[in-house]
Amino acid sequence: MSETWLFHSGTIFDGHALLDPGSAVAVRDGRILAAGPEVQVRAALPDPDHDVSLAGRALSPGFTDAHVHALMGGVESLACDLTGAEGPNETLAAIAAYASSSTGGWLTGGGWTMSDFPGGTPTAAMLDPITGASPTYLINRDHHGAWVNTAALRLAGIAAATPDPPDGRIERDAQGNPTGTLHEGAMDLVNSLIPVPEAATLRAGLLAGQRHLHSFGITGWQEAILGNYAGYTDASGIYRELQARGLLTGQAAGALWVPRETTLESVPALVQDFLARRKENAAAGFRTTTAKIMVDGVAENRTAAMLEPYLRACDCAPGSPGDTGLRYLSAEVLSAVAVALDAAGFDLHLHVIGDGAVRMGLDALEAARAANGATGGRHHLAHLQVIHPDDVARFGALGLSINAQALWACNDDQMVELTNPILGQERAGWQYPFRSLIDAGAHLVMGSDWPVSTPNPFEAIHVAVNRTAPDRPDAAPLVPEQAITVLEAMRGYTAGSAWVNRDAEGGSLRPGSRADLVLLDADPFSIPSSDLHRVEVELTLAAGHAVFARAAAGV
User: Fold this and answer.
1) C-alpha dihedral, 73 to 76 to 80 to 81, nearest 10°
2) What element of type H or E holds 395?
3) 58: left (phi over 0), alpha (psi -120 to 50) or beta
């Protein structure tokens, strides 16, 4: 039988606004029974199983992460997990510990940080003494590069004469020999050799990922890639299975991956494939109404698409003076894909980092609007690191959403050491312009891109509000005039992200809605903004059931 809950005597945020002081929320049968003045709510639920006094704490709808890789992050957490390692020594020690317990075969995992290594490019020579003959493939934190050892390079036949693939780059020494870092599509030269994870591994990974998300109050999410990417295959079957077994406690939606090799001729077949997969997933209760398109790479390895060339960080930096990054689809193909998928009723989810990619994405969505009219597609552009000022107003005009990974909008080590030097002062000032985009009429949704970075909403909210990293409070804020308010960030992470996921009941405390709730140990609306990153989750309810509880919660 479902438990009943009554929350009162504290701050209650309903996904859009704060309820009046003295308000309460009641939960019965997995749904919000009542929300409003405590006396009325108690009349509706006079004898709850759990009578919870907030007492200085706060209640919110569960968070929805609009851009996450739950299965990938979960699988990697069960392998060689480097996300907690700081600096090269800790990273190498973690790899050595994992290698020592390995029973042979491939060593895989990820989570290393580019800024921990000179130029962001660790070498095979660092790995070889601790991995030996075991081929090793470790994805970096942003999942746009991989670190491999000599054994892996040899198995893949990667040598000085190996050309860079069209969508990637092999890091090389002065003589052209591969050094051990593979960027973007070059990762596929190695990961195509790694055995595909077994279904049991994927199931365990997704369940681990779900537990991790619930511990941060996340009750809904969008799996941002469903398709063949970085050694993973379409995880839809795993989602369908767990849904059928009643093990999927979060409200998950998914984005079907548009392959980088898509051509004009293959667009009709792509749309038919997506329609069939959407129908199959929907029949199993897994919503995949979104299509994911990766337009470019990332700035720190110079694969984000820029309108003007990157600066050279030093005379020894690789790359040519005319280097403007990578574009995974031509403008013609991108527009054709956008027009066709928009017409077929898909919401488009575009990865765009550089100002060149942003403009390409806006042009493609503008073409879709011209061809199809206003279809009601909930199109969103994710990451949005560098935006040319001339393009800001176009977001509101096209009715687009910004899918913000706000944790990155600060002067952390990677920004200071790798990114700003190759962008230059002017473009560094165009980064993550959330305030300007919202003021231009764009709709805000928020996500983490975990395992690229922590899924903790309050670390991201901290940066969105302060424009400084939680662990670097004395650093100069990154473009501080682009900060947003706590209320805006909370709306984006609850009602906003649920909306873009087409979850009509998520992100809200409306009576009758599904009871996805999070009890916070502090009131984010009243504490100093410098303490936002310290807010922790004490209890997470998904459809009225406790899926995470901290021992000290006292509920």
Assistant:
1) 10
2) helix 392-397
3) beta
Task: State residue 316's pLDDT score.
Answer: 36
Model confidence at 256: pLDDT above 90: yes
Opening angle at CA 510, ends 508 and 511, nearest 5: 145
Can you identify the CATH homologous superfamily of domain 5-62+509-553? Urease, subunit C, domain 1 (2.30.40.10)
- Lowest-pLDDT choice from 121-125, 255-259, 317-321, 424-428: 317-321
Q: Which residues contact 65 (CB under 8 A, 6 or more apart)?
A: 213, 218, 220, 221, 222, 446, 447, 448, 450, 455, 457, 493, 497
The three-state DSSP-derived secondary structure of 17-44 is: CECCCCEEEEEECCEEEEEEEHHHHHHH
Instruction: Give tens-digit pLDDT for 453-510.
Output: 999 999 999 999 999 999 999 999 999 999 999 999 999 999 999 999 999 999 999 9
CA 15 to chain centre: 21
**What is residue 12's three-state secondary structure?**
strand
Share the mean pLDDT of the chain: 94
Instruction: State which CATH number among 3.10.310.70, 2.60.40.3080, 1.10.10.10, 3.30.40.10 fits the domain covering 70-191.
Output: 3.10.310.70
Reported in sequence order, the residue ranges of 129-186 that DSSP labels E, i.e. its strands, are: 136-140, 145-148, 168-172, 178-184
What is the C-alpha radius of gyration for the chain, rounded to an integer number of angstroms? 23
pLDDT of residue 554: 65
